[in-house]
Design a protein that fits this description.
single chain; alpha+beta; Jelly Rolls; six-stranded antiparallel β-sheet; 1 helix; 11 strands
Length: 146
């Protein structure tokens, strides 16, 4: 009986230690340095034609995330909203933006934040398109509006 109790305690200690190691690894991943390059990123075509994305961290289909995003030359997303906030820093070309306050041409090195629920139009430069770093506070979506 004593051997059984000792074995059970040992098994519990091993399981708890394993869980602790896995949790520590997850925490370390959150705190580790992340380096990436848009030039070396693997882009995947988005269901929205004319857009491709390369995930940097997180998962745009599930929650908070960062991506490199490309718009082909002349891309037109139409009027739309996003459920969550989106932050953009342009790397190459220009991200074109319009809302009730006017138009903006966001070029390389420039930043724009679009609050969740804000009605706007976006697109890519007619000649170069756009390459930008995009960060979202939650799952990425695009809801067309008129």
């Amino acid at each position: 009986m004593k051997k059984l109790v000792v074995s059970a305690v040992a098994a519990v200690v091993i399981v708890m230690a394993s869980v602790g190691v896995v949790q520590a690894q997850k925490e370390a991943e959150k705190k580790s340095v992340l380096y990436t390059s848009a030039e070396k990123a693997t882009f995947k075509q988005s269901p929205m034609g004319g857009v491709s994305m390369a995930t940097i961290w997180g998962d745009p289909d599930k929650g908070a995330h960062a991506t490199y995003t490309k718009f082909v030359a002349g891309y037109d997303a139409g009027m739309h909203t996003h459920t969550n906030d989106v932050w953009i820093v342009v790397i190459k070309g220009a991200y074109l933006y319009k809302d009730s306050g006017g138009e903006k041409r966001v070029g390389p090195g420039e930043f724009i934040r679009v609050p969740g629920g804000h009605k706007h139009w976006s697109g890519g430069d007619k000649t170069e398109g756009a390459l930008f770093y995009e960060e979202g506070s939650g799952k990425f979506d695009l809801t067309p509006v008129k």
